[in-house]
Prior knowledge:
Blueprint: H1 3-193, E1 210-217, E2 220-223, E3 236-241, E4 244-254, E5 259-266, E6 277-279
Antiparallel strand pairs: 1-2, 1-6, 2-5, 3-4, 3-6, 4-5
Amino acid sequence: xxxxxxxxxxxxxxxxxxxxxxxxxxxxxxxxxxxxxxxxxxxxxxxxxxxxxxxxxxxxxxxxxxxxxxxxxxxxxxxxxxxxxxxxxxxxxxxxxxxxxxxxxxxxxxxxxxxxxxxxxxxxxxxxxxxxxxxxxxxxxxxxxxxxxxxxxxxxxxxxxxxxxxxxxxxxxxxxxxxxxxxxxxxxxxxxxxxxxxxxxxxxxxxxxxxxxxxxxxxxxxxxxxxxxxxxxxxxxxxxxxxxxxxxxxxxxxxxxxxxxxxxxxxxxxxxxxxxxxxxxxxxxxx
Length: 287
């Protein structure tokens, strides 16, 4: 056998041994991998079961946590609202406290003023009590004077009745004198109307002055003539309206362009008014 063939035989032998060793090693490793794989698969199965259980537990805890979180959020909102209400109430209470303090201050001032008023009133009451005592003493004196006054009043009442009786008699006499004066004036008017001159009888006649009644008040007649028209105090004017005789007035006050006269008498039922005519002398009938 050649050397080359021997070399190939040796090489084949070496390769066969190498292959045999490698096959044995590979078989042994393959057996170990299988066991390992079975163990790993079993562990993976256990881990998967545990993982699922853990996941389910965590899902439950997460759901419970979410529920709790929602509840807490709701409670937090409620607490926030309650806190805001409390803050608002606190602000209102502060305002009420400030108002109460202001009212207390006002009340204290009012009480102080009332105390001062009470002190003043005490003084006034003391003065009034003294005044009452004084008035009581004066009333006692007045009671005694009242008895005298009653006696005087009774006497005055008797005097008044007597005076009223005398006044009635004087009124009747005045009425008769007024009627007599009216008759005399009517007679004088008739004499003047007939054209008879009173100077022939030695009677001094007033100058003829015509006037108008411009005002009448409280028995005083204001005439439209005065000092400029030669009117003098004491002149008497006959007042008439148309052909109706109204009465007689006597001048008492004289001004430049007017005069004031007092009513002497009026015709029965007649009234002297503003606008009536008046004259010192009526000649040739009433004008």
